[in-house]
Amino acid sequence: MLAPKNATQARPERLEDVRAGFSILKDGDIEGAREIFTALLEEDPTLAPAQLGLGRVFLTANEPNRALEHFQEALNLQPEMAQAKFLSAEAYTQLGDIDMAVENYDAALALDPTMGISAARKAKVLMQANRTGDAQESLAAATRHSPQDATLRMSLAGSLAQSGKTDEAIAEYRRAIELQPDAWYGYFGLGTTLLRAKKFTEASETLTKAARLAPDNANVFQALGAAMTGLEEHSKAARAYDDALRLDPGNMRATLGAATARSANGQHREALEVLRGVGRKGNRIPPVQKALGDIYFAMDRFTDAVDTYRAMILNSKQMGENNPELVDLANGGGDEPPEVFALTLKEAIEKQTEEMTKQFRNNPEQIRERLMSRRQRPGGGMMGGGMGGGRMGGGRGGMGRM
After folding, report:
1. For residues 359 and 323, is the Cβ–Cβ distance under 8 A?
2. What values do phi and psi take at 295, rounded to 5?
3. What domains are there in the chain, each with its CATH number?
4. Domain of life of the organism in this record (predicted)?
5. Integer angstrom CA distances of residue 133 from 11, 123, 124
6. What's the pLDDT at 10?
7. How far apart are CA 247 and CA 216, in angstroms?
C-alpha cells in the first residue's frame, strides 16, 4: 500500500486523517477508507493526498476509470507526485491498456528513479505482453538506481530465468537472497531455477530453506518434491508432495508427483490410490493417464498400461498435432502381445515428451507465446497471472500486495 510521501501544506490533523485512511484501506476496510477520503475532500478538494487515497479506494474496488479521475486530480494539484503516476499505471493495467500502463510506470520512475515497485510492475506487464527483452532492460536500469533493492533483483532474476538465461538468473537470485535472507520467495525462485537446470542437490537444499520460511505454501513443497525425485530420494519426495497436497488438495502436479514417488518406491497400489483421488474427469487428463500407464506397466498389468497409454495419446491434442504417427501407433498394435505393445507406446510417448521439453528449453519464448494465445481467447484476461512459475500468495514474509 502506497501512502503519499510528500503531502501538501495542509493542516497536520488532515494529514493524520489521510494516513488513517490509507491504514484502514491496507487492512481491507474499503468503505471506511472511502468515507474518510470523501469527507476530507468535501472539506478541502485541493488536498492532493486525499485525492490519491480516494483513487486508491476505487482501484482496490476494481473501478479503474473512477480511480484514474482522482489520480489525475492529484497530479493537477501536485504534478511531481510519483505515487499518482504509479497508481495510474496500476489502473491502466486493470483496464488491459499496456501502452498507457508502461507510459505511467515510466513517468513514475522519471519522478522517482528509486521506486523499485514501479520498475517491477512495469516488467511484469511487459512480460505478460511477451516483451521479455524490454522487461529485462527496465529491471536492469532500475537496479542501477537501487542496487540494494532485493525485490527488484528477484524480479530481474525471474525474467532472466523465464527467458532461459539460467546462469544470470541464478547469480541475481543469490544477490537478492544476500540482501533479503528471510524472504522465502528468493529461495523459491532460486530453487526452481536450479531444478530446471537439473542441479538437484542445490535445488533441494535451497527449497528446504524456502519451506522453512513458508510452511504454508504448497508450491514450495511441490518443487521440493520434484528436487527429491531428481535425487531419487523417493520417500522424501512423497512426503514433500503430501505436504503440498495437505495445503492444496487440488494441486495436480503434486498429486502426480506423490503417485510417481510411491510407485518408484514399489508402492504401486498406494500410488493408484492417490490417482483415484483425481476423480473421473481428472482421469481423462493426459498426464494422469501417463502416470497410470507407468504404474500399471511397473505392476506387469500390460493390458491396462496399453489402455491408458493409448488414451493419453488420443486425448492429447498437442501430441497428436505434433506427431500424427503416434496417433497411428496408438490406433494399431492389435497383433502384438500386450507387454510388447505397452513398451512400444511407453517409449514412443517418452521420446515425444523429451523432444517437446527440449524444444521449449531451447526456446522458452514458445511457452510464453502459447500462454499468451490462451489468454487472448474469449474469456481469457491479458493481465492475469504473475511473473513466476508458482503462486506467490501465502508464506511468511511473502510479497503481498504493494
Report:
1. no
2. -65, -45
3. 18-79 (1.25.40.10), 285-362 (no CATH)
4. Bacteria
5. 47, 10, 12
6. 52
7. 7
3-state SS class at 402: coil
Which residues neighbour 298 within 8 Å (Cβ) at sequence distance 6 or greater? 263, 268
57's grid cell: 479506494
Write the CB contacts of 378 (distance below 8 Å, at least 6 apart in sequence).
Answer: none
DSSP SS3 for 129: coil
Instruction: In whole angstroms, give the CA distance from residue 44 to residue 40.
Output: 6
Mapping DSSP onto H, E and C, the string for 374-389 reads HHCCCCCCCCCCCCCC
pLDDT digits (tens, 9 = 90+) for 68-78: 999 999 999 99
C-alpha cell at 87: 497508481
Name the residue with cell 510521501.
Answer: 5
Model confidence over 8-66: pLDDT tens digits? Answer: 445 677 888 899 999 999 999 999 999 999 999 999 999 999 999 999 999 999 999 99
Phi-psi region of 215 (alpha: psi -120 to 50; beta: other; left: phi over 0): alpha
For residue 173, the Cα-to-chain-centroid distance in whole angstroms is 16
Q: Which three cell numbers stand for residue 347?
A: 517409449
- CA dist 236 and 231 (Å) reads 10
pTM of the full predicted structure? 0.69
pLDDT tens digits for 181-238? 999 999 999 999 999 999 999 999 999 999 999 999 999 999 999 999 999 999 999 9
Q: Are 210 and 396 in contact (CB under 8 A)?
A: no
- The x, y and z cell numbers of residue 402, run together, are 504493494
**DSSP three-state, residue 4:** coil
Separation between Cα atoms, residue 383 and residue 391, nearest integer Å:
15
Q: What is the DSSP string of 222-245?
A: HHHHHHHHHTT-HHHHHHHHHHHH
Query: How many Cβ atoms sit within 10 Å of the Cβ of residue 28?
Result: 9
